């Protein structure tokens, strides 16, 4: 397998964690997001959405981080990243999607760039935007996590799964922008548990070969 | 089953389509998004994310539209909303998530309200923002759809599925904001095919009891 990745891409980070958790080795191709390499026609031929990541598996090209993680779950079921019970699966997917569909998209690089260039927002205003949506989104995550918490170490039970794959990159982003995470104790305890695992630690941005 | 819904919520619209495609009857509870009823503590007790929709199934509460659709797929497999082959499933999920994780979140009501109130953007500027992200996102969707198109009527093959459940509400939004959809012919042909089906037509905003 080959992962088209960028060290700071949250979505690529999610897939790096999932691959590590499943013990799958992969090659890497580095696409420099900040330099706009994802918008080049050469990459568009690989990923028509021109987004990161892309996973190549036996010549087949897969896109969108959560679709890739579902594919890995279906093709390499062990260890599972989703529980067995449909209701529990729905809970884990809902937590993952709260991050992937509500928090992260509003703060991704192309939105921040648009705020600066098209709306003339200052760096300080862009940072305030970033922190606003982190606070809004993590409050929702904390409320959901706290309600469904089953005493397990991770988002659901004692095995890390799809929701943890999404949570950890989001917290890295929150910390990078110096967001206040004190109001989210259950979330931050779960993050800390994840970071004790080599699969999460090895996937972090600063440990990628393309980190600058 | 009971669906907590709002006629104009794209995410609720996705689940209404999925329930109709699967032939599942449901009761409704109307949560008025524009009046902020989703932020009331009473609804927070039902959905800790304070978002629409919520599906209640035998007293169990499910959140996040795509997690709900995956749950329906697992608990009511016929007719399927995902193909059987893992690679094909990944393609359908990727198209669905391109809408749910890239296009819709940047244009949802709370983001538009924040642009107005916190960033002081005029209605005209907010509309320009809306159209910008529709054009950006649908161009990606069109490129992906065109590449993988298998001659079928829908996003994948001749059966409507999860990607179609996401596409149709997004096109309704695009049309409501008078976005130019001419550059996206494959996407619009697929939309037109969907709208020939009663399951999609009956789910549309103007046909909901809470439409104003």
Quick description:
Two copies of one chain form a homodimer. Chain A is α+β, with helices and mostly antiparallel strands and 212 residues long. In chain A, 52% of the residues lie in helices and 8% in strands.
Give the SSE order of chain A as H and E letters: EHEHEEHHHHHHH
For this structure, the CATH topology of the largest domain in chain A is Glutathione S-transferase Yfyf (Class Pi), Chain A, domain 2
The appropriate CATH architecture of the largest domain in chain A is Up-down Bundle
Largest binding interface between chains:
A-B, 48 and 48 residues
Relative helix content of chain A = 40-55%
Let me know the average pLDDT of chain A.
Answer: 96
Q: What overall geometry of chain A do the principal axes of the alpha carbons give?
A: globular
* Structural category of chain A: alpha+beta
Strand order, largest beta sheet of chain A: 2-1-3-4
Unreliable residue stretches of chain A: none
CATH level-1 class of the largest domain in chain A: Mainly Alpha
Number of helices of chain A: 9
Number of domains of chain A: 2
Tell me the Rg of chain A in angstroms: 17 Å
Strand content of chain A: 5-15%
Query: What oligomeric state do these chains adopt?
Result: homodimer
Task: Give the SSE layout.
Two copies of one chain form a homodimer.
Chain A lengths: L1 E4 L4 H12 L5 E4 L10 H4 L9 E4 L2 E4 L1 H11 L10 H18 L5 H9 L5 H26 L13 H15 L8 H11 L2 H4 L11
Parallel strand pairs in A: 1-2
Antiparallel strand pairs in A: 1-3, 3-4
Helix pairs in contact in A: 1-3, 1-7, 4-6, 4-7, 7-8
């Amino acid at each position: 397998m080959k992962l088209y990745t960028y060290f700071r891409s949250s979505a690529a980070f999610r897939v790096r964690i999932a691959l590590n958790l499943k013990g799958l080795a992969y090659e890497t191709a580095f696409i420099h997001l900040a330099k706009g390499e994802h918008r080049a026609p050469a990459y568009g031929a690989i990923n028509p959405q021109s987004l990161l990541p892309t996973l190549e598996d036996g010549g087949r090209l897969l896109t969108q981080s959560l679709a890739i993680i579902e594919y890995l779950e279906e093709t390499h079921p062990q260890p599972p990243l989703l529980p067995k019970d449909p209701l529990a699966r729905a809970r884990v997917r809902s937590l993952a999607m709260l991050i992937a569909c509500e928090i992260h998209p509003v703060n991704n690089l192309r939105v921040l760039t648009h705020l600066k260039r098209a709306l003339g927002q200052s760096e300080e205003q862009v940072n305030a935007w970033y922190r606003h949506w982190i606070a809004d989104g993590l409050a929702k995550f904390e409320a959901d996590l706290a309600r469904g918490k089953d005493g397990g170490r991770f988002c659901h039970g004692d095995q890390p799964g799809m929701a943890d794959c999404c949570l950890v990159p989001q917290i890295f982003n929150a910390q990078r922008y110096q967001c206040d995470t004190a109001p989210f104790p259950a979330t931050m305890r779960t993050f800390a548990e994840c970071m004790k695992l080599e699969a999460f630690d090895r996937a972090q941005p600063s440990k990628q070969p393309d980190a600058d």
